[in-house]
Design brief:
It is a single chain. This protein is of the alpha/beta class. The chain has one domain: Rossmann fold (3-Layer(aba) Sandwich). Helices cover about 25% and strands about 30% of the residues. It has four helices and seven strands. It has helices spanning about 35-45, 90-100, 120-135, 145-150, and strands spanning about 10-15, 30-35, 50-55, 70-80, 100-115, 155-165, 165-175. It is globular. InterPro entries: Methyltransf_12 (IPR013217), MeTrfase_VrtF (IPR016584), SAM-dependent_MTases_sf (IPR029063).
Length: about 180
Amino acid sequence: MEQRGGTTHHLDIGVGTGYYLAKAPANYNISLMDLNKASLKTASARIGKARIRYEVQHNVFESYPEELHGKFDSISMYYLLHCLPGAMVDKGVVIKNVKAALTKDGILYGATILGDGVKHNSFSSKLMRIYNHKGIFSNMSDSEEGLKKILSEHFEYTEISVKGTVAMFLASMAK
């Protein structure tokens, strides 16, 4: 990860509890984005308020506030896309919005659970059906190809690695 002036400006979207970010190097300047205020509060408390640059309650389907444009060397989205409503193509606007917040040399990375083109065991198949029915997940048709398409629309370089039912991805060189 490229660092400028000894600091990496990082945005985590869909923050969860902040467990992994709390272990980030001290020179990371961390920002958080989530629709859920309780998640932001929990993650911020775990990481430490002094390390948080921006704490943004925001819908990722909407354009980011102007003050976030071009600010981040890296943006992570772990286990977010499969929770967002709609087909993978509908989630392309989320990638477009992320791109606006990256610096010229910034990178996007994360992971998502795929529903199509991967083999789920009987337990995960049942859980997926329940979660999709309840609206917790929206990923029955999410595929590696669909993910590649929405990333490639906005980035010159994309890399996807599927392990089991999870796609780990990286994108850089914004178009």
